[in-house]
Amino acid sequence: MEHKHVKIEYEEMLFGKKEILSTQINLINATNHIRNYKVLRKKELSEKTKLKSQLASLRSKVASLNSHLPENNQLPKKRTNFVKKENIKDFQHELDEIKEKLERLNNR
After folding, report:
1. Looking at the chain, which terminus has fewer C-beta neighbours within 10 angstroms, N or C?
2. Is 4 buried (19+), middle (13-18) or exposed (0-12) by CB count in 10 A?
3. Number of C-alpha atoms within 13 angstroms, CB side, residue 70?
4. pTM of the entire structure?
5. Per-domain residue ranges for the chain?
């Protein structure tokens, strides 16, 4: 096998060594991040499994409780997901009062 040599300047050699060392540091850091990710992922999966079993247990308990409760023949009331305008005005009035009190305290 024949060896060939290439002449490079001292600064180029230093730059190359620095780049190699920097790359090694980055690889070690990446490896550590991957290891940490694997550990956290395992923990996450075990926690999800645990939560899933607890939810299944809770569902069965709720179903058991519902079976023991008397049945309600009334239709459920329709829920409304909006706030009445009067309540908004009350909130605004209350908010204004609180701001006034706060300003009076700041002016003392």
Report:
1. N
2. exposed
3. 3
4. 0.48
5. 8-67
